[in-house]
Amino acid sequence: IQEAQASKNWKNTIELLEKHRQHEEAQEELIKGLVKLIQRGVHHNVQSKRLLNSLIEAMNTFGSNEGIQCAGMQVLHYISDKCDGADGAMWVNVIQIIARGIAEHGRDSAQLQGIFLFKGFADALRNQTRLRVTVRKARGIETMIDLMVKYTKVPAVQECGLTFLEAMASDNQGMKTIQSK
Fold it and tell me: Which of 2, 21, 31, 33 is most buried, most CB within 10 Å of its CB?
């Protein structure tokens, strides 16, 4: 934890996230540290895929830790604003995390963060053909529809899902996939 608190930059923090994978408190400190870097305007120039991997792993491993979920959503939001159609499969993992986070953290701020994040992610999808293609090829539409079916009783998941599908329907292939599913 001391090591986590002492970390002051993206590169070092990502290395520590990888090093302390199973340490819940350290992960929470590190991810909250990344939020502080974002708030201070310290830009991230480390490969997004590596950062996404670590974040996805922490958010999956410590699903009930609200600190990790909330801070993680904020960092994902930051990455989604900067994403350029990186690995589509990664973004499918992100979709699952957001939808699950919204469903399972219904009474706390992780849900709100998730909704904001989805809006940002959908904007990126609308504006970037390449990102839509990679997410579509990675079966993102099918994943989202499955999650909407799973969380039928969670209005926020339905709302986010529709925002996502609307963004993915910006091209014919996306529209066809949605209709066939």
Answer: 31
